[in-house]
Amino acid sequence: MDVLWGINCRLWSMDTLGEVLWMWRLMWMTIRMQEEVAAERQSMRKLAAWGLVLDSSCEIMTSDLALLLLVLSSVSTARSQLNLSNLHASDLPSDIFGTTDGYVKVFCGSASLGKTSVRKDTVNPWWSEKFTHFQAQENDVLRLEVFDDDLLFDDLLGVCQRQIKLGTHQHDCYLKKGGILHYTYTLG
Ligand SMILES: [Ca+2]
Ligand SMILES: [Ca+2]
């Protein structure tokens, strides 16, 4: 009797172990499937965020893809070249440390295009530097920061900002701390 019970018990144990393993495998597969579905949804959300229109079966429609490519190509062709030149200033304010030592930092959109050299001891500086940006777009913000070079901390004399337009334009910008910055740019 004990022997038979022992055999039955072992068989029961084997069956139970098999069931547990099978259940564990089923749970593991379920979790993996959920992860894959979540990842798939995440990638679909990213595509949707890029402006792609998805159909009911979550497949990108051919016409939408063609439209996207058309938009992307038109964006790339909208890039223009910006040339900035003829930078000079008049009546820059001096301070107790002496006559102004002016220079200008140049930015276009999120790009920094560099800065001019320092024109020492003059309130009417001219800068020979020219700045070029090949990835400019109409309505990008051209930003010019005029500084007085000092021993420790340079003084910001004023900031000139404007949205650039196609063509050649000449501007006079009145600086917050006094003086005028003159410049010319061409976008095209
Ligand atoms: Ca100075
Ligand atoms: Ca100063």
UniProtKB/TrEMBL annotation:
GO terms for biological process: defense response to virus; immunological synapse formation; T cell mediated cytotoxicity. Residues 61-183 form the C2 domain. GO terms for cellular component: membrane. One of its GO terms (molecular function) is wide pore channel activity. Keywords: Signal. It comes from the Eukaryota. CDD domains: C2 (cd00030). The keyword Glycoprotein does not apply. This is C2 domain-containing protein. It comes from Nothobranchius furzeri (Turquoise killifish). The lineage of its organism: Eukaryota, Metazoa, Chordata, Craniata, Vertebrata.
